[in-house]
Amino acid sequence: MLEVTGKYSASLNNLHNIDVLAGYSWQEERLKYDESVSGNQSSWPETANRIGMFARVQYNFDRRYYMSASCDAMEIQNSARTINGGFSPQPAWDGTSGMKSS
């Protein structure tokens, strides 16, 4: 298993503020299939990989106007097939004084 997360924050003249958070996760799982149903008494191991990524960016101007965007993606791979979880963007905007999710 491997998980990496990073965060970055910056401010320009204390008016423009940005925060970035990103992460990556990889996990390998060993599966074991049994062929005793088909008459063959053998079994073999197989691996499945789970991969996930996410990111979030938050921006505010003078702590008054806020904007946020986040996304995530997931994929499961094994020797038989790949399942793609896709990409899910989630934007948000609030011109007042707080965050509203969409």
Q: What features would you describe in this structure?
A:
It is elongated and about 60 Å long. It has one domain (2-94). The chain has strands at residues 2-12, 16-34, 43-61, 65-78, 82-94. The model has no long low-confidence stretch (mean pLDDT 78). 0% of the residues lie in helices and 75% in strands. It has no helices and 5 strands. It has 102 residues and is an all-beta fold.
Characteristic key phrases:
single chain, 102 residues, mainly beta, five-stranded antiparallel sheet
Describe the protein's topology:
Elements: E1 2-12, E2 16-34, E3 43-61, E4 65-78, E5 82-94
Antiparallel strand pairs: 1-2, 2-3, 3-4, 4-5
- Morphology call: elongated
Strand content: over 45%
Structural class: mainly beta
Strand arrangement within the widest β-sheet reads: 1-2-3-4-5
Instruction: Please provide the count of β strands.
Output: 5
Count, helices: 0
**Total of domains:** 1
Could you tell me how far the N terminus lies from the C terminus, measured between alpha carbons in angstroms? 32 Å
Mean residue pLDDT:
78
Low-confidence stretches: none
The biggest sheet amounts to: 5 strands, antiparallel
Rg to the nearest angstrom? 21 Å
User: SSE order, as H and E?
Assistant: EEEEE
Helix content: under 10%
